[in-house]
Amino acid sequence: MDDRTLVEKCKAGDEQAFAELVKRYSTKAYQVAYSVLGNCQDAEEVAQDAFVRIHKALPDFRGDCEFGTWLYRIALNLARNKYRWNKVRGSNVNFSIDAPVEGDDGEDNRKYDLPDETPGPDKDAELDELRGRVSAELAKLPEAYREILVMRVVQEMSYEEIADALGCQMGTVKSRLARARDELKKRLGDLQ
């Protein structure tokens, strides 16, 4: 079933249709939030808040854009607000009653399901170092550059979807993306 049909069913009160939309888009909402916040718990909270807002606003959704684009815009705005709130008030003020408790060894006890690609320990170490470096440099980029790179490269959004999500022209998306890529290349220059 396509998104438009699910949205129409949601408007008619079908909670299963909404559950299907949540299933389809929860990972993407989390990824958008994480790209802005860089914190798992905050990203989970923002993704959940995005779906709460969507559930309340769905009756007024006109369908001028795709459901996914609408979701990205809401998640992105909520993540930006959360980022500003954390910056002003301090993220250490936040806590969750659902947060995992550290074990006796002081380690985080969460389990992550990762694909087994088994390239070998030396390649693993190299890739981990590279990922860490790229993530660190990405986090240092200005917010507009970081967001657009994540939308295009990680989320694989089209230029049109990005323009809709950010509320700007396609030319702005392309030029901002080119500048973001150039800036990231400069920061990672010694890797080439």
Which ranges are low-confidence, i.e. pLDDT below 50, for 5 or more consecutive residues? none
CATH superfamily of the largest domain: RNA polymerase sigma factor, region 2, helix turn helix motif
Q: What is the N-to-C succession of helices and strands?
A: HHHHHHHH
**SS-based class:** mainly alpha
CATH fold-type name of the largest domain: Rna Polymerase Sigma Factor, Chain: A
What is the beta-strand fraction?
under 5%
What distance separates the N and C termini? Answer: 45 Å
> How helix-rich are the residues, as a percent range?
55-70%
Total strands: the figure is 0
- The name of the CATH architecture of the largest domain is Orthogonal Bundle
Number of helices: 8
Shape: globular
Q: Can you describe what's shown?
A:
- The chain has 192 residues and is mostly helical.
- It has two domains: 1-92, Rna Polymerase Sigma Factor, Chain: A; 120-192, Winged helix-like DNA-binding domain superfamily/Winged helix DNA-binding domain (Arc Repressor Mutant, subunit A), CATH 1.10.10.
- The chain has helices spanning 3-11, 15-37, 40-57, 67-89, 121-140, 143-154, 159-166, 170-187.
- Helix 4 packs across helix 7 (159-166).
- The protein is globular, with a radius of gyration of 19 Å.
List the helices and strands and how they pair.
Blueprint: H1 3-11, H2 15-37, H3 40-57, H4 67-89, H5 121-140, H6 143-154, H7 159-166, H8 170-187
Helix pairs in contact: 1-2, 2-3, 2-4, 2-6, 3-4, 4-7, 6-8, 7-8
Brief description of this entry?
By secondary structure, the protein is mainly α. Helices cover 68% and strands 0% of the residues.
